[in-house]
Amino acid sequence: MSKKIACLITEMFEDSEYTEPAQAFKEAGHEVVTIEKEQGKSVKGKQGEATVQIDQSIDNVNPQNFDALFLPGGFSPDQLRADDRFVQFTKSFMDEKKPVFAICHGPQLLLTAKTLEGRDATGYKSIQVDMEYAGAKFQDSEVVVCQNQLVTSRQPDDIPAFTRESLKLLG
Known about the structure:
Layout: E1 4-8, H1 15-27, E2 31-36, E3 42-44, E4 51-53, E5 56-57, E6 68-71, H2 76-80, H3 84-95, E7 100-103, H4 107-112, E8 120-121, H5 128-133, E9 137-138, E10 144-146, E11 150-153, H6 159-170
Helix pairs in contact: 1-6
């Protein structure tokens, strides 16, 4: 059954952390909807390898209309978490126990939403201490699946495991 996946993304995302999972989700028959401040805008990856067209503005989306949330890394999550609209959108997926897929710096949105306390999770090495302060049980592994809801990974090398576990949760 096809699922609708919200992807919060803006400038300087980590190219492969968006392109590879998004491609796998689409090949499995799921829909990936990119969300940023401005619908129709193009955002560029920090490696300069990918450009993503934004499908929807954060002002025009409702978390209830999505089955899962995808948070690619790079500098994108840090920029987005400065805007409460993106933080509240992220928090609603965690509160509703919907699948959330966060890689590298993606968990920064989960940190700001205060949703990692007591959760098993991983992320990029530079945010490990932040995650621990937030109460996450940090694990240095390629992929961590928590409570059959949250999938986290550390870096681009982990994309195959991240994608595999995310697809399992999507069914």
